[in-house]
């Protein structure tokens, strides 16, 4: 690895000042599972590496006053998987437990997964389905935006290398709600999503769908919030036909590429299947059933 | 324009219960420092990019790939490497079961598997086969086909639960296998 200076600031302000004063020659380091590999393979260069893990507020995970979840940007997958306040946010846990293996999960952060801004990042469709908002600090102040507006293309996001992601805020969950995230990979573990989907469903007292969000991963330059198909669920009583229909609509929004991992047609078909499955799982979970695809 | 090489940093850490102070460059990985500076060569370099798990060590009890941890990041923290798994020359039950179960061929992956398996059994002494396979998904082996590894972790789990670690059953001429058989 090329030489650099290491910094471990203790506050958000200190980190942002360092970022600004090093004039684009620095990178932020959270768990390092993307960035250290990129530096070693000369895909990125940095004169300064700014480790953000010693900023106390970034490692906090707590329930907010309105009953939502606040997740510091340096919270690791492992921390998330073992935390009580995060337990109801099942779609995010589905994602966190398949990001790499255990060694990766001990280090990899949700914030880093989002900031790396890969179209195949597993946490992003889950965050979209759960209605997350992000807060980031820049030299000119703190900004917020919906997670759906955060990534702008492969490896790119609104911060443009000038900001520090501080936290993610997830909406409060409805009393009768469920969520799910699933991806397709050609093996059981340790691979990058060929296609993925996240879903959130909230039921009204009469059993009809009150709120729904569907997100698609790895089938476009960034994860896609499938708003129209999800809206078609609102006010309806859940049924297999309804879910099939909505999944088919959602698959038309996928704009995947052809590559060695899958053809366009294959990825569209996967999107249909994965949306169907995650909607089913979200509904089962809303009904109080424990559905798990991996030992947790 | 290459600038002046950044100064080395002084790092203090605990490795296998012992204090270590060392100097390192910020760009050096923990694996590099363990192997090249501290002569702890048990952790292996397989891929050097986080995929194979051969370099697994425990950082404050959690398994991490030491090839994608900077050595400067372990300041003030606690590490366990494969060198710290045996107890005063007595093999840990996982190590013993790997030997007895022929869970290795070339052996490059073995330290990583044993350290990760130790982390698993410390947290969950009686894991299911699925839990073992899931916990070891970040460790790759090109030789064994995994089955003997999984069986050996299962055997170690049984042995630890039966309490037949050599320390608790100090009969000098018995092998662990004999002890285990006697307990069944
Ligand atoms: C073997 C292996 C397997 C993997 N498997 C998966 C997988 O299955 N699914 C998946 O989605 N990913 C996977 N990854 C990729 C990676 O582990 C994840 O993207 C991880 O979540 C990144 O988090 P990190 O904390 O390690 O980020 P880092 O590497 O520390 O940072 C990633 C990027 O985000 C920036 N950054 C980090 N934090 C902030 C912040 N607070 N503010 C601003 N910028 C920030 C960094 O500068 C860098 O550009 C894998 C990686 C490896 C090595
Ligand atoms: S050498 Fe570290 S994971 Fe392969
Ligand atoms: S024994 Fe050779 S890689 Fe596992």
TrEMBL record, chain A:
Top-level taxonomic group: Bacteria
- Alphabetically list the UniProt keywords: FAD, Flavoprotein
Q: Name one GO molecular function term.
A: oxidoreductase activity
Q: What is the lineage of its organism?
A: Bacteria, Pseudomonadati, Planctomycetota, Planctomycetia, Pirellulales
Which Gene3D superfamilies does UniProt cross-reference here? 3.30.465.10, CO dehydrogenase flavoprotein, C-terminal domain, Uridine Diphospho-n-acetylenolpyruvylglucosamine Reductase, domain 2
Designated name of the protein: Carbon monoxide dehydrogenase
- Domain annotation FAD-binding PCMH-type: ranges: 1-173
TrEMBL record, chain B:
Q: Which residues lie within the region annotated Disordered?
A: 157-184
Q: Which UniProt keywords apply?
A: 2Fe-2S, Iron, Iron-sulfur, Metal-binding, Oxidoreductase
Instruction: List the protein's name.
Output: Ferredoxin
Low complexity composition-biased segments: 166-184
- Give the organism the record lists: Blastopirellula marina
Iron found in the keyword field: yes
- Which InterPro entries does the entry mention? 2Fe-2S-bd (IPR002888), 2Fe-2S-bd_dom_sf (IPR036884), 2Fe-2S_ferredoxin-like_sf (IPR036010), 2Fe-2S_ferredoxin-type (IPR001041), 2Fe2S_fd_BS (IPR006058), Beta-grasp_dom_sf (IPR012675), Diverse_Oxidoreductases (IPR051452)
* Lineage: superkingdom: Bacteria
* Domain 2Fe-2S ferredoxin-type: residue ranges: 9-85
Q: Name one GO molecular function term.
A: 2 iron, 2 sulfur cluster binding
Q: Does the record carry Metal-binding as a key word?
A: yes
Name the Pfam families for this protein.
Answer: Fer2, Fer2_2
